[in-house]
Amino acid sequence: MGEADGAAVPMTRGARTRQRREEIVAAAARTFAEQGYAAVGMREIADAVGVRGASLYHHFASKEEILYAVCLTVTREPNEENLPLLDAAGTPSQRLAALVDGHLRHLHRRRTEHVVGLHELAALTPGHRTEIDGYRRYYQRRVRDVITAGMRSGEFTVPDARLAAFAVLDMLNGLSNWFRPDRDLDLDAVVSGYVDLVVVRMLGAAHCASPQAPRP
Amino acid sequence: MGEADGAAVPMTRGARTRQRREEIVAAAARTFAEQGYAAVGMREIADAVGVRGASLYHHFASKEEILYAVCLTVTREPNEENLPLLDAAGTPSQRLAALVDGHLRHLHRRRTEHVVGLHELAALTPGHRTEIDGYRRYYQRRVRDVITAGMRSGEFTVPDARLAAFAVLDMLNGLSNWFRPDRDLDLDAVVSGYVDLVVVRMLGAAHCASPQAPRP
DNA sequence: GTCTATAATAGGATAGAC
DNA sequence: GTCTATCCTATTATAGAC
């Protein structure tokens, strides 16, 4: 394992740079979430990473670019990870139940970033704001579409898909503002409780917990 | 109507001062909502009111005190105006329906202030933050209590009042982030739709729209 | 109650050495 | 890729005249 073959340890430099970028984004998300974007200085982010303020500009052109990276994490990831659940096999109830599950688990896994992404959109440049809003609107539309599909199939008895989609997503996203696992309320309990509240109760599906055959 | 009786035109000076205070709070809420608290300077607030920056300090000791005033509006007012609806006569379904109605109308009437109050709490001083959180927690507890009452009376079939209270309030508060009246979605439609989604569908009440006698 | 003028500080960002 | 040093500007807040 000498240095004869450079390809044996490929992209070591690039990987390290990428890792440092992610350290910066993670540290920034933490401080932004606690104090608010505009109240945090580049020096404070740098301290959290363990470098000097000027070094951040080797990785990001501006403070807003760091915020943009945080916001991308919580708008693009759900589109890439959760929306495929809506394209999978199954009834609208089953597919929406899977999305609610995935959505809540992503909200928790990226809890810090979501707090920023849901509160600091006003600080983005107009171009970045438009892009982020586009991801969010697409996600919203896909949720509305699966509700509409469930209404057509007769599974959902709700009268207005648009209103229901707002209600569902606001209810889900609210989680990141209050959920802290404790002795009598862990994530699995919230997830199954919310799937029931949304899919069975609010939308009116007869059942949805586990994959099932279509009704005869 | 001479100057013999000072009480004939009472508090004229105080009323004007109070009015200017409210102008400042209103202008600040607008700019905070659009750009975020920390991104707004005292000069910008002053411009919106039509005075110089220094003049604001005659009415408020600091920028944070203005934010505190905005946050008080959207945490104390709902406690004072909406919570009495939970103490009125009627079944838990009826009382919660009235609260949902009042809550949504307040969210809309104080739309700008709510955007600030829901996004900028991190910028409050610890003391103010604690006070505001107290109002919010009390409101949340009252909603949970009426849900518990409905569970005991058998009207609500939901399994967990705490989880349901979070779901309901997050769903309601989300309104201020997206609702703009348009041709096919006015406030009355959203209110009646959300009352149905929350009280009838999510919580499981058989009906609640209008006052009714208890079931035999 | 509002003004002008200014203090005191901190902010984002850049230049250039290593 | 990170550092030191620094520029330039904007900020909150105060002092004191009117």
TrEMBL record, chains A, B:
Q: Which domain of life is it from?
A: Bacteria
Keywords, alphabetical: DNA-binding, Transcription, Transcription regulation
This entry's Gene Ontology molecular function terms read:
DNA-binding transcription factor activity; transcription cis-regulatory region binding
Which residue intervals are the DNA-binding region? 41-60
Matching entries from Gene3D superfamilies are given as: Homeodomain-like, Tetracycline Repressor, domain 2
Q: Which residues cross the membrane?
A: none
Q: Which residues form the HTH tetR-type domain?
A: 18-78
Q: What is the name of the protein in this document?
A: TetR family transcriptional regulator
Source organism: Pseudonocardia sediminis
